Amino acid sequence: MQYEVQHFINGKFVNGGDRFEVYYPATGEVLGTAPDGGQAEVNAAVEAAKQAFEKWSRTKPSERRQILNRFADLIRKHSDELARIETLDVGRPISENSRHYLERVAANISFFADFVTMIGSESYPMENGYINYVLRQPVGVAALITPWNVPLLLETWKIGPALAFGNTVVLKPAEWTPLGAWKLAQIAQEADLPPGVFNVVHGHGPNSAGEFLTTHPDVALVSFTGETTTGQTIMRAGAATLKRYSFELGGKGANIIFEDADIARALEIAKKAAFFNQGEFCLAGSRIFVQKSIYDRFVSEFIELTKKIKVDDPMDPKTEMGALIAPEHLDRVLGFVQAAKQDGNEVLVGGEQLILPGSLSKGNYMMPTVIAAGFQDKICLDEVFGPVVTVTPFETEEEVIEWANGTRYGLSGVVQTRDVSRAHRVAAAMKVGTVWVNDFFVRDLRVPFGGMKYSGIGREGGHYSMEFYTELVNICVAI
Length: 479
Ligand code: NAD
Prior knowledge:
37% of the residues lie in helices and 23% in strands. It is an alpha/beta fold. The chain binds nicotinamide-adenine-dinucleotide.
């Protein structure tokens, strides 16, 4: 099937801009084309969102809830097709787009649809006979700019709260993965979302739809997930029109394994943290620190585990690791491995491109890779965003905390130990937005999600999303 992706503006599917090809990472085949939205398409979408805001922002939360829950239920209904589309977009194994994944995609909408009907507001009575109370109001048109690695999850993570709190939306999905957003627009239409409330403009970043959204005077908020350097560019672009930002940026997660950890479990967690989504994951545990007394044993078992990872056709339910997103991204990841070798780091397993037989021979496959490295080596500092993990021995708790905090990123980390006091102590000392103790990538939509340092600005999730997607008005009443 050839996909002819279109923008979704004011409730209608439209073309606009040159068309670019969309490739399937697993085979390199052309899946179809998508339109490269420009200033005209961005203007039309923002105008539609601005008009729709008038009504949507005043629609009762209970009505918004009903409409958005219909949207979420239809996502559930279409989950098999969405799972397939996500694999076509990303190259991730279909087994990782399970019902659990798609349920989370739907829950990103339904959680906030329900949440918005349950919120109250603060009041501050004054001793001199006045009372203050606080109203929360929708902000306006939200630009949602998303990356290619877990598109459906990240798109709905922004669409859900933005719409639930009464804003209207223009989504700009990543150019490498337009299919999922296109399908979401079809589902939004099926769910009868009022025209203009949810718009999708496809295209690129610089001098294209992405940039035009971030400079548009009628865009009030920008929720962006992507590379740190892109976040910096977007922040500069929006300065003239003073936008409100939420930034979820790069990561370089530490996975700290103490000698008293449950080793079998630690190995499984390390494998998942390093190689989920081909390691193209902001939360990846891409630096494994192992206490010296168990280092040799852990590393030799981890190498064996890594060798057994089934890298294959992502549509095969038995496949554990699929294809990287694009040939140029594969080259970039292989470049990091080459540079590490030149820096004297030892590749313990993998490190090479993988050519699979038959129709997969033009896919972007790579062997899962483990590299022995010191905590200050370049490979331990840069975000590789591929199936490459480093292993480093440590002796003391103090030194490993310092090493874990020794990058410019601060998104997430993992601590593995059976010592409860140490678990809490080390978790609290890590300069990251999320720490998992004895597990990885467990998400609760109520908790703050985001990063410190160069990993982002702000938090989203539960009432943290409410803070971002609402304006506050204090009303002071003389009694
Ligand atoms: P990217 O920054 O290249 O692109 C992300 C989006 O921004 C795309 O839609 C792109 O078209 C758009 N864009 C690019 N330049 C732009 C510009 N000048 N103005 C406006 N929009 C622009 O990121 P990517 O390669 O798609 O994704 C990988 C990165 O995303 C990694 O660094 C990863 O860590 C990060 N990420 C972070 C999180 C998180 O939650 N913190 C989650 C997933 C991915």
